[in-house]
Amino acid sequence: MTATLRAVIRRDLLLAWRRRSDVATAVLFFVIVVSLFPLAIGPEPNLLRAIAPGIIWVAALLACMLSLTRTFESDHADGTLDQMLLAATPLGLIVIARVFAHWLVSALPLVALAPVLALQFDLEPDLLPLLVAALLLGTPRCRWSARLARR
User: Fold this and answer.
1) How many other C-beta atoms can be found within 10 angstroms of the C-beta atom of residue 83?
2) DSSP state string for 11-52
3) N- or C-end of the chain: fewer Cβ atoms within 10 A?
4) What confidence tens digit (pLDDT) does each residue in 2-27 have?
């Protein structure tokens, strides 16, 4: 069963590597949205510090949602999803492996960029690890809540 999960994760990572433009789209969307807020609001440092975590969170969740639709779309079209349903491995574990691979590809780059983009908001350096930890804990949850909302 572990070999199947590793194969699913490896397959999804390989497919993401072949479609790098999908990953780049989400990352560029995140960078553009976060970068536009300081330009639109102005140079007021106290206001920028106050809204920084919320803006980074909303931009990260929107960027995650941007690439979410393609997670199962191609597998449904070519019949791979049917084979996964028929596999001996429980479907829940396959979905967890797919979500984990998608998180590695789409959310982890956003979490890595968040501290750099937070500097635009003059966020205090001692708050950056807290922001990164919150994004690490929260971005997988955005995947599950989006899946549940579709049902």
Assistant:
1) 10
2) HHHHHHHHTHHHHHHHHHHHHHHHHHHHHHH-S-HHHHHHHH
3) C
4) 888 899 899 999 988 988 888 899 99
